[in-house]
Design a protein that fits this description.
Number of strands: 25
Distance between the termini: 30 Å
Oligomer: single chain
CATH topology: Neuraminidase
Strand content: 35-45%
Shape: globular
Number of domains: 1
Largest sheet: 5 strands, antiparallel
CATH class: Mainly Beta
CATH superfamily: Kelch-type beta propeller
Structural class: mainly beta
């Protein structure tokens, strides 16, 4: 476990190399982007939080259990990429910057977070996916939801090391990244160096890890970013997302069929949304 710092949570809080010495599960666990120091849950959060689900009530709905908090408050990071039974969170906002290179790993067996080798260069809204026990980090923004980049990297868990791979053919952030047939599909996203010029794209690029090469595929029917995407039974599902900005959340649901390089519309979401997980 070279160059790794294990962070073990407890009821009292979390020890952290970043200066967050006593962040408990239920105490001050929030941070403003423009102000240093931890704060309690903002009142505005109570007016914006949504907990319900449009799905039919399940016979056995399960339950939520509190686990170890993050080593520090973060947002707009790539998240929930699983490798070897552990979850990777990469890049994002934190400690008053939007171009962080953080790389945290959650071990559910030990209920701990591991601070490990960071990205070679920080960004937010990086696209991530796991292929053959390696994590790929694709594109992202270097400013707050703007100024996308072409940089792409691959992380080896056994070596605890990032390496640069072929860059994106064109810069983009908020890209959906999905693995199918051991290739990486980078779908949609947004471009623009300013908030006013930001535009969603329907671009669909496929990366071959063996050849270290990108190739074009059929673009999405409706350009959008901040989508949910997942591969299931040989199909890529792209669900929801936004068109140009968060005022235009969509309920669209399309599947990509790789054998014929085409998209098909499917049953839409009951509620339009973006920036969601899938």
């Amino acid at each position: 476990m070279n160059r790794r710092n294990f962070l073990l949570s407890s009821v009292a809080g979390i020890a952290s190399t970043s200066g967050y010495a006593q962040m408990s599960h239920h105490g001050d666990a929030y941070e403003r982007l423009n102000q240093a120091g931890l704060i309690s849950r903002p009142p505005l959060a109570d007016t914006q939080a949504v907990f319900d689900s449009p799905a039919p009530k399940a016979i056995n709905p399960g339950k939520w259990i509190t686990r170890a908090s993050l080593p520090l408050p973060r947002s707009e990071m790539a998240w929930a990429t699983e490798m070897n039974g552990r979850m990777h969170l990469i890049g994002g906002y934190g400690e008053q910057r939007v171009d962080r290179s953080y790389h945290h790993i959650y071990d559910p067996q030990k209920d701990i977070w591991i601070v490990t080798t960071p990205l070679p260069s920080g960004a937010n809204h990086v696209g991530v996916v796991t292929i053959d026990k390696k994590v790929y980090a694709i594109g992202g923004y270097i400013e707050q939801n703007r100024k996308p980049r072409v940089d792409c990297y691959v992380y080896s868990d056994s070596l605890d090391k990032w390496e640069r791979i072929a860059p994106l053919p064109s810069p983009a952030g908020s890209i959906a990244c999905v693995s199918i047939n051991k290739n990486l599909h980078a779908i949609g996203g947004a471009v623009g160096d300013t908030t006013d010029t930001k535009k969603s794209i329907g671009t669909h690029q496929v990366y071959d890890p063996i050849a270290d090469r990108w190739e074009k595929r059929a673009p999405m029917h409706t350009p959008r970013d901040h989508v949910g995407a997942v591969s299931h039974q040989g199909l890529i599902h792209v669900i929801g997302g936004r068109v140009d900005n968060f005022h235009t959340n969509s309920n669209l649901h399309h599947v990509y069929i790789s054998q014929s390089d085409r998209w098909e519309a499917r049953n839409p979401l009951p509620t339009a949304r973006s920036g969601h997980g899938l």
